[in-house]
Amino acid sequence: MNPSINRRKFIGTTLMAGMGMGLTSELAAFSTRFDIKNTKRVGIIGLDTSHSIAFTKAFNAADAAADLGGYKVVAAYPQGSSTIKSSVDRIPGYIKEIQALGVEIMDSIDSLLEKVDVILLETNDGRLHLEQALKVFKAGKPMFIDKPISASLAHAMAIFDAAKKYNQPTFSSSSLRYMENVIAVKNGKIGKVLAADAYSPATLEPTHPDLFWYGIHGVETLYAVMGTGCKTVQRTFNEDMEVVVGTWEDGRIGTFRGLRSGKTGYGGTAFGTEGITDLGPYGGYRPLLVEIVNFFESGKLPIDPQETIELFAFMEAASESRRKKGQAIAIADVMDKARKEANKITI
User: Fold this and answer.
1) Which stretches of the chain are assigned E, i.e. beta strand?
2) pLDDT in tens, 233-253
3) Is residue 22 pLDDT above 90, yes or no?
4) Which residues, other chains included, contact 132 with Cβ-Cβ below 8 Å and sequence gap of 6+?
5) Domain covering 7-175, topology
6) What are the domain boundaries of the chain?
7) What is the CATH code of the structural domain delimited by 176-347?
């Protein structure tokens, strides 16, 4: 592989339609290629999450080159959330840890962008992602956005709108999507998936809609095996646990169980035409990092943006269902409302 990005072609559009959000069911796949010639320098935005340290250790390890393509984290802008105490308190310690890994600390996103070729947007606070992502798009840098892509469905839509406007591909994902058994199910291990149940911790954070903060891991697992097409969402909530039931347009049913007490973990069960299988266990971050490197190398999106948009609509509909005492909420209505809000955002 040759080094430095001499040019990027960003071919195709992300027309996603359906359910009032101006997006098509087919991914006009950001089928981009970069001519990469030694563009191996990774920059991180946000040192308020343990992901920043874990990802840097993986990329900068002596044995990382084989499956992580020689990419190295060389610089980081530490500022993440300024209001979420659990995040703010981490930053000083994580600055020291990442410096010990050979990473230079920058005083702004603009100065970071001058030092690197690709970006990991790691800020824990999804409310900041649109503003931060716009700087990266305008600088012409490929970017992975860690979960949650935003703290609202409207902002998630606006981020993908901006990616299209500035011809810069981006994707967002929980590492749970890349559990070994989830991939096996997607590859046909149990035939067609007829139903699935997924679970994960679902810690609540007042600054984010309930499932956006941590329940997203289980929702991403659910969508990884069920795919798009959810029609209605209904939520039963209590302080210790919750269950969210999605009914797909073809009659399939998928559930998410959020855990807030007792033993917690990640996993689920998928039910198919040819078998039933567990979706766990969780295998760590490396499969996601390999997928990110493949994206940086090829420019091809591993996840249809429509799927990311819809799983955020699923979570927003769950919040609405809680407000309405467990009433079933139509995904289409949630999409329509968010699209109107997204169209008002300046990108």
Assistant:
1) 7-9, 33-35, 41-45, 72-77, 104-105, 118-121, 143-145, 170-172, 193-201, 230-237, 241-248, 253-259, 267-272, 276-278, 329-330
2) 999 999 999 999 999 999 999
3) no
4) 45, 46, 109, 121, 123
5) Rossmann fold (3.40.50)
6) 7-175, 176-347
7) 3.30.360.10
